[in-house]
Amino acid sequence: MNEEIIRNYAELMKELDLTGLEIEEENRKIRLERMASAPPVLPVPIPHPAQEAAKETETASSGYEEVRSPMVGVFYQAPAENADPFVKVGDRVKKGDTLCIIEAMKLMNEVTAEQDGVIQEICVKNGDTVEYGTVLFLMGE
Predict the structure, then answer these.
(1) Pure H helices in 17-140
(2) In terms of pTM, does the model score above 0.85?
(3) Nearest to 20, CA basis, from 8, 34, 41
(4) Where are the domains of the chain?
């Protein structure tokens, strides 16, 4: 097998993001391996401290309690795609009731109410990626 053919296989591996390739021709066998490429780094918006302070002041003055995400992951309102959501705006919940699921690394993590109250607002959309500390719900009396 000549160098040009090997280079073509190496390019194919790169194009298809393969980490290994084994080729057998006639009575020859060649194995190509490469390190996996790192996933692309996505830009993360960094909120301005003044904007964050304004949001917190606004929420505090509204008298609502914030339910924040305990982790980075994907927000789901329901236990399954076609199921009813755990809660809707106006629902009264008790401490320990499931409010949503945050999927992180293929694990489904339930977020529960830490106190009794009424769901005043759902602050994120189903399927949104949320960061640690993202406000998910506003609860009031």
Answers:
(1) 49-62
(2) no
(3) 34
(4) 3-33, 49-140
